[in-house]
Amino acid sequence: MKADAADTPERIAITGSSGLYGRSLIAAIRHQLPDARILGIDLRPADGDPPDEFHQGDIADPRQADAVGRFEPDTIVHLAYAVQPGRDAAALRSTNVDGTRAMLDLATASQPRRLLVASSATVYGAWPDNPPACDETTPIRPFPGYYYSAHKGIVERMVREFAEASPQTAVSWTRPAIVVGRGVRNFLADYFLGVPFLCLADGRDTPLQFVHRDDLARATLAILLASARGPFNVAPDDSLTHRQIARALGVPAIPMPYAVMAGIGRLWWTLRLPWLATPPGLVGYVRHPWVVTAARLRDELDFAFDYSSAAAFAELVAGDDQRAG
Predict the structure, then answer these.
(1) Residue 165 parent element (H or E)
(2) pLDDT values of the chain reduced to their tens digit, one per residue, 325 residues
(3) Nearest one of 26, 41, 16, 12 to 214, comparing CA atoms
(4) Residue 135 class from Cβ within 10 Å (0-12 exposed, 13-18 middle, 19+ buried)?
(5) Rounded to an integer, what distance in angstroms lies between the CA atom of residue 49 and that of residue 34?
(6) Contact assessment for residue 315 and residue 212, using Cβ atoms and an 8 Å cutoff
(7) Helix and strand tally (H, E) in the chain?
(8) Which CATH number is 11-178+210-236+291-308's, of 3.40.50.720, 2.40.50.320, 3.30.565.10, 3.40.190.10?
(9) Segments of 79-224 assigned E as strands
């Protein structure tokens, strides 16, 4: 399927504008569309790359709907999600699922030409029968126990339903791999940069993919400029095995039974022990591969990544003060 012919986005509303994805996208828009106006909505102001207009608050707040209505966006990008692990399951679901529902209600009212929503490559799940590389036609099977993957599965269903009911809007969603780059600090980056060793689940040298934050922003903008529709995987073709990651970090890779890893993860999380802040459900994503191919970006939009997984991860490691010092 070819992307629709597109007019250039001129008024872009971004939820989650102060997060990593939002700031990177704003920087890309400034570079490529200097005349575009940007409305940002987030719970906190951005440290850098501010939008032209900013409203602080929850997307579910009626005042934000009023702000978007006054702004009259031709494009809405929904990036407001709780990625960092939390212990309040109801609050996480409220942010990720109910927040998306509120945004879709807002989009129904404002009728933008384009709507893009952030999903995740984790929706494919980490299953032993996954294909060598999941493309956009591969059925999504979120891995049970990991809230973020489960929430993204629900979000994708909601977005598909909105797209079917709103054919006048070019609806798309991105499925990025692990986002890294210099200066990126989140629970996954802290995990890789802080571990004294990497565990090989059941001795498997499972591959992982990494996408540079700048490539994710450029890919997102390419989708918007094309008014493309449907899901887009966002990851370079290469991947790094756990042993390769361990070598890049300068730590050993140690085989460990998966059941032991899962048990330690649950205990660590339950006891709120320091150092390891990853939710236990995420352990499943190191047991089996969930590699993706960005087939649609390459074939339909002629998009090329500037960074390989290896280069993106190397930049993350090089930017770590402790390792650099």
Answers:
(1) helix 147-165
(2) 344 444 899 999 999 999 999 999 999 999 999 999 999 999 888 777 789 999 998 888 888 888 999 999 999 999 988 665 555 567 777 778 888 999 999 999 999 999 999 999 999 999 999 999 999 999 999 988 788 889 999 999 999 999 999 999 999 999 999 999 887 877 677 778 888 899 999 999 999 999 999 999 999 999 999 999 999 999 999 999 999 999 999 999 999 999 998 887 777 666 666 656 667 677 888 999 999 999 999 999 999 999 999 999 999 999 865 554 4
(3) 26
(4) middle
(5) 13
(6) yes
(7) 12, 13
(8) 3.40.50.720
(9) 114-118, 170-176, 178-180, 198-201, 207-208, 210-212
212 is written with which tokens? 């540079």
DSSP string, 35-57: T-EEEEEESS--SSS--SEEEES
Q: Which DSSP state fits 9?
A: P
Give tens-digit pLDDT for 273-319.
Answer: 665 666 767 788 899 999 999 999 999 999 999 999 999 999 999 98
Q: What are phi and psi of 11, to 5 degrees?
A: -130, 105
Question: At 144, phi and psi to the nearest 5?
Answer: -65, 145
How deeply is 193 buried, as exposed, middle or buried, from its count of CB atoms within 10 A (0-12, 13-18, 19+)?
A: middle
Both tokens assigned to 122: 């984790």
The two three-digit tokens of residue 101, written as one number: 């529902």
